[in-house]
Amino acid sequence: MRMLQMKKSEALMTTPSEQNVKAGNVKEVLAYLAVKFPACFSVSGEAKPLKIGIFQELAQRLQDDTTVSKTQLRQALRVYTSSWRYLESTKEGVSRIDLDGNAGDVIDASQAEHASKVLEESKAKAAQKRKAKIAEAKSQATAEKPAYKKSANKKPTAASKSTKVNQKPVSNTEAPAKAAPVLERIPAEHVVVGGKVLLKLGQSPMLATVLEISKDDVTVQLGSGMVIKTRQDSLYIA
């Protein structure tokens, strides 16, 4: 009986952060890193060059964190450092930062030149892919277009004339694009455990459920099952 009570007490003491669900893809890993280390990582806007050896620092700081594995960290860092916004920020004289945003080594000319070359090659590949997709789309449209068959020169009958008169012109007016939803920050008193909120990660807000509230910090769970700890001022009305 006593052992059963101890087990129940241990279960109650387990916090949501200790029950984290493993991130499913690179996008979720980067979103998690941006919340965990906001002075170092970001999911939109200008990126900051990372210190050399940042992986070892990440692995050490997250060694007890079950949300991401070392393999996922490597994949996420590879995607992050090869993005255009990151390469554009890698310029000569700019300081690299650690996980806490502290400035370290300065990027030299060779490193900046390498980043510029990689960026140029990446944009060139992207342009080639766009051209290939456009050419493929045109080819498919041509293949699906029915062959034109020249009809005999016949005089239109009265019925055909009336049909033409009654035909309605096709409108080329496109439906207006929907405006992006305006997010309204949720008042602190409305943030309750079990309540639904919107958490903005990058450009797209994500629906989440409040699990725990500790002063200005709030722990929420995304629809994918991923648990993230954030601040109240980053939550919006769902």
Automatic annotation (TrEMBL):
Residues 21-135 form the ProQ/FinO domain. Residues 129-177 are annotated as: Disordered. Residues 159-174 have a biased composition (Polar residues). It comes from the Bacteria. The keyword Methyltransferase does not apply. Gene3D superfamilies: ProQ/FinO domain (1.10.1710.10). Keywords: Chaperone, Cytoplasm, RNA-binding. InterPro entries: ProQ, ProQ/FinO, ProQ/FinO_sf, ProQ_C. It is found in: Cytoplasm. Belongs to the ProQ family. RNA chaperone with significant RNA binding, RNA strand exchange and RNA duplexing activities. This is RNA chaperone ProQ.
